[in-house]
Amino acid sequence: MPNTIKTIFLTDDDKTYLNKLLAQSTLEIRIYQRAKILLLKSAGISNMDIAGKLDIGIGVVQRCLNKFKDHGVESALHDSKGRGRKAEITDDDITWVINKACQKPKEYGYSAEFWYPMSFRKFINSIAEEQGHPRMATVAETTLRKILSNARIKQFRVSYYCEKRDPEFDTKMHDVLVVYKQVQMQFDEEGKLIPFENDTMHTLSYDEKPGIQAIAGTSEDRSPIPNSDKNNSYQRDYEYVRLGTLSLLAAIDLVSGEAIPLISDTHKSSDFILFLQKLDEKYPKGDTIRIILDNHSAHTSKETQEYLNTIPKRFEFVFTPKHGSWLNMIEGFFSKMTKQMLCGIRVETKKELKERIYRYFDEINKEPVPYKWTYKMDSIDLAKEDIDSIVYEVVNAKAASAENKNKKASKPFSRKRRTISN
C-alpha cells in the first residue's frame, strides 16, 4: 500500500489526550495501537517503521492515518457504528438448528445414523439459505456446539432404555413372582429346606446362552513374575484365532440349586427338545416339571408343542413377559459363570471349550446353592392367588392335540408340612 500520508499534525491537547489513554491499564489493544500510530506519525516516523515497532501490518497503520485525515482523532481511535456483521443469530435460527439436530441424517439421505460436529456443520451450512436462515450458511462449528450445549443436546450419543412392549407385563411379572413365592415357602427362615409329603413338583429356571466363542491363542501366556513392576500379571499376545461358537442351554433347580447344562452348536427347537428330554429322564416319572422361561420362538414352536403332546401333564411353562428376562433367575447364574469361567478363556479346540464348560457345572454342583428371589416377595400372598390362571400346559395352540387345546394346567399338588419328631 503506497505511503500517501507523509506526516500529520497533532495539537498539544491531542497529544495529552492520547498519552492519557496510553497510561490506562485496561485500554483495549486496538485503541492502544491506534494512539501509538498517531503519536509516532506526528513525530515524523515512517509507516513502515511504525508497523515494525508495533508488530502490526502496514495496512493497519495506513487505515488509521486515513481515518485521522478524514475525521480526526476520535474517528482514528474508534470503529464507526454498524461496522462488522450486521446479521446476528436469532432465536428463530437457534430453534431451527436444534430441530435439525433432533432429526437423523438418514432422514436427509445421508448414510450416517447420527450427526457428528463436522458433518452437522456442513449440513446446516448447505441448507440454511434455502430454508430462510441465511446467517447459518456461514456459522462455525464451535458456534453450533455452543447452541446444542446450551440446549443440553448430544446428538452424537446414544443412551439405551428398555420399553415395556408387553401390555400384560405387570400381570405376567406377578405370575412369575407367585411361582418364586411358592419356592420360597419350601425353605425355613434359616434357608433350610422343609421336607414335604408328595413333593412331586420341580421348578426350574431355564435359558440359553448362545454365541460362546471358542478362541485360541497364537502363543502361550506368560506367567506373572513376582516382585516385578511391569510383569506382575499374565501377559498374552494380542493375536488370536476364532474357532467357532457354542450354545449353552441350561436350567437351575430352584429348590436343590443344581445346574443342568446341555451344550450344542445351535439353540433351535430340536436343541430345546433335547434339553426337555434330558429333564424328563432326570426327574421321576409322574412328577411335574415346571419351567420358567422366556418367549424365544424355540420354546413355543410347533415342533416343541408336538413333543409336549407325547408326554401330556409332564411339563408346565411359565413365561416371563417380553423384555423381562431379568425376572429369570438363571440370568444371574449366567452372569456369575461369565465372570468366573468364560471371561478371557483360551482353548485349542471347540471340543476343549465344551469339556471345560461341563467341568464348570460339575464343580458348581459339588456344593449347589439355591438361588433366592427377593424383589417384591413381600407383596405376594399365596392365599389370594389362583394358580390355575398362571401356568399353561399348551405353548402352541395350533400344534396342540385336540384334547389339549386351550387347556390350562392343573393346580400343583398340595404341600403339607411333614411332622418331624424331636
Radius of gyration: 40 Å
State the helical fraction: 25-40%
Mean pLDDT score, rounded? 84
**Number of helices in the DSSP assignment:** 13
CATH architecture of the largest domain: 2-Layer Sandwich
Helix-strand pattern: HHHHHHHHHEEEHEHEHH
Biggest sheet statistics: 5 strands, mixed
Content-based structural category: alpha/beta
CATH class category name of the largest domain: Alpha Beta
CATH T-level fold name of the largest domain: Nucleotidyltransferase, domain 5
Shape: elongated
Into which percentage range does the β-strand content fall?
A: 5-15%
CATH superfamily of the largest domain: Ribonuclease H-like superfamily/Ribonuclease H
Cα end-to-end separation:
115 Å
Tag the structure with descriptive keywords.
single chain; 422 residues; alpha/beta; Nucleotidyltransferase, domain 5; 3 domains; 5-stranded mixed beta sheet; 13 helices; 5 strands; elongated; disordered C terminus
Describe the structure.
- There is one protein chain.
- The protein has 422 residues and is α/β, with parallel strands linked by helices.
- Strands 3-2-1-4-5 form a five-stranded mixed β-sheet, with helices on both faces.
- The radius of gyration is 40 Å and the shape is elongated.
List the helices and strands and how they pair.
Elements: H1 12-22, H2 29-42, H3 47-54, H4 58-71, H5 73-77, H6 91-101, H7 117-127, H8 141-150, H9 169-184, E1 201-217, E2 240-253, E3 259-264, H10 269-282, E4 288-293, H11 302-310, E5 315-319, H12 330-342, H13 350-366
Parallel strand pairs: 1-4, 4-5
Antiparallel strand pairs: 1-2, 2-3
Helix pairs in contact: 1-2, 2-3, 2-4, 3-4
